[in-house]
Amino acid sequence: MLEPKKDSSDKDEGELTGGKRLIKKLYKEHHHFTDIIVADALYCKSTWIKEVLSIGMDAVVRVKEERLHIVKDALALFKCRQANKEWIVNKGSKSYIKIQAWDEDNFEMADSEIKVRFIKFVEEIYNGDKSEIKETWIITTDKFTSAETLWKIIHKRWDIENNTFHQLKTEWHL
Predict the structure, then answer these.
(1) Selecting from 3.30.1850.10, 3.20.190.10, 3.90.350.10, 3.40.190.10, what CATH number does the domain 13-158 have?
(2) If you ran DSSP here, which 8-state letter would residue 26 be given?
(3) Can you spell out the DSSP letters for 121-160?
(4) In whole angstroms, what is the distance from residue 159 CA to residue 147 CA?
(5) Which residue of 22, 88, 96, 169 has the fewest C-beta atoms within 10 A of its own C-beta?
(6) Would you kindly state where each structural domain of the chain is located, as residue ranges?
(7) What confidence tens digit (pLDDT) does each residue in 114-143 have?
């Protein structure tokens, strides 16, 4: 368990710095403890990606900032073509999701020579007679995992954040 003042050497540190220290510590104690580290939009920084790569793992990071050059470049490219992949989740049910994924590799992070894969997901979510459209962007250093699996990974991260952390905070007061 991390102890804020003790673990941060009596200094205030941000989540990003704490995250870097945590993955280094986990790697030192457990070596290759996972294949992919999944993070939210706060971690969409080349310094974080470098840290993850330095311990031999891949990163999957949610992207939200439209002003980033990588986002502008990817969206301009994707506008000119059809999705690379389409699939349906819960096919045959009244509540289902149609997903389209645009997937392109070799985008450069700002201030770095790191090449990442950028994936844009567009979800048409149907629930009875209601429908809504959501768009999600991620970057990843993983060159091999399918877009469908990466979509599942990013959604599981949301489940953990929205359910587990909420439960720990509200029911366990942690």
Answers:
(1) 3.90.350.10
(2) H
(3) EEEEEEETTEEEEEEEEEEES-SSS-HHHHHHHHHHHHHI
(4) 18
(5) 169
(6) 13-158
(7) 999 999 999 999 999 999 999 999 999 999
Cross-strand pairs, 99 = 87, 123
Helices 46-54, 15-30: crossing angle, 10 deg rounding: 10
Contacts of 154 (CB under 8 A, 6+ apart): 38, 60, 62, 136, 138
Beta bridge partners of 89: 97
* pLDDT tens-digit map of 61-103: 999 999 999 999 999 999 999 999 999 999 888 999 999 999 9
- Tokens 């220290």, residue located: 21
Q: Give the pLDDT of residue 4.
A: 55
